[in-house]
Amino acid sequence: MNPPDVHLLDLPNEILLIILRKLNNIDVLYSLLDINNGQLDILAQEKTFTNVLNFVHTDNISLIDRFCIYILPRIHHNIKYFILEPVFMGRILLAAVYPNLTELKLFNFERQIASKYFTGQNRIIDGTCVQDDILVYMPQLHSFTFYISTYIDSGDLRHNIARQHINQTLINIGPQNATTIVNRLSRSVVECSIFSLPFAFAYLGSLGNTFPNIVFNYITYIVV
After folding, report:
1. Residue ranges of the F-box domain (predicted)?
2. For residues 43 and 95, what is the distance between their CA atoms, to the nearest angstrom?
3. Separation between Cα atoms, residue 23 and residue 131, nearest integer Å
4. DSSP state of 5
5. Among 224, 189, 220, which residue's Cα sits nearest to residue 205?
6. What 8-state DSSP symbol labels residue 122?
7. What does the pLDDT look like over 130-166, one tens digit per residue?
8. CB within 8 A of 88, min separation 6: which ones?
9. Half-sphere exposure in the Cβ direction for 156 (13 Å, CA)
10. Number of helices (H), then strands (E), in the chain
11. What single-letter DSSP state applies at residue 67?
């Protein structure tokens, strides 16, 4: 006597959740949400799959389109933590209102990309810029992990590139710790880097000859 066929959807929800939790939550949402199956639709909206969304190393345009058009507007109230790269940051953050978003982590925020998100020219990205151009739009955010560098002409007297002055502007971004490194790359070019503490990235470029009194737990590549 042959045993009856058992399909995935015949399993209890508790067993389905155990199986789905072993998968990437981005894949779960992309594959199961809004596919005209009520049982899977409810399971995919569990907080396990919707609280933290990591889009780093995602280059599937169809996936991003589906999230921005259909998925994020449905689960926006559950999202507490985004991990993003700048290439899709604008689309994702503008896809919905995120009333419970409290953490935002950005990776690979390179010089050319940074100029798209911060207004003004050969301008220093300091704490005031971070507050006015990013954080003001996310009032519930309590943790922002960042590392941003600006390269400027040191002969431009419009810029105040004193480390003490830039550190003072970092007070604007709230209670979290942050600091700056100012490094002269040549007679005419100065690099100003601002970053959150503790430093969460594996790369630190152009440190210069002044090593700050900071513990870098995750760095695997550094330029001195």
Report:
1. 5-52
2. 22
3. 36
4. P
5. 224
6. S
7. 888 777 777 777 778 888 888 777 666 455 567 788 8
8. 55, 58, 64
9. 13
10. 10, 9
11. I
Reported as a single tens digit per residue, the pLDDT across 74-88 is 999 999 899 888 788
- Is the pTM above the cut of 0.70? no
- Give backbone dihedrals phi and psi of 84, rounded to 5 degrees, phi first: -135, 160
Phi, psi (rounded to 5 degrees) for 68: -70, -35
Q: What is the Cα–Cα distance from 106 to 133, expressed in whole angstroms?
A: 14
Q: How far apart are CA 195 and CA 125, in angstroms?
A: 11
Left, alpha or beta for 149 (phi > 0: left; psi -120 to 50: alpha)?
beta
Does the bond joining 139 to the residue before it have cis omega, within 30 degrees of 0? no
Who's near 168: CB < 8 A, 6+ residues apart?
A: 127
Confidence of residue 38 (pLDDT cuts 50, 70, 90): confident
Whose tokens are 């009032």? That residue is: 139
- Rounded distance between C-alpha atoms, residue 27 and residue 63, angstroms: 9
68-93 residues labelled b (16+ CB within 10 A) or e (exposed): beebbebbbebbbbbebbbebbeebb
* The residue count for the chain: 224
Q: How far apart are alpha carbons 173 and 129 in whole angstroms? A: 9
Position 79: which residue type? I
* Residue in the structure block whose two tokens are 């449905």: 74
Largest CA distance in the chain: 88
Residue 16, SS3 per DSSP: helix
Report CA-CA distances (Å) from 90 to 106, 117, 220: 12, 9, 29
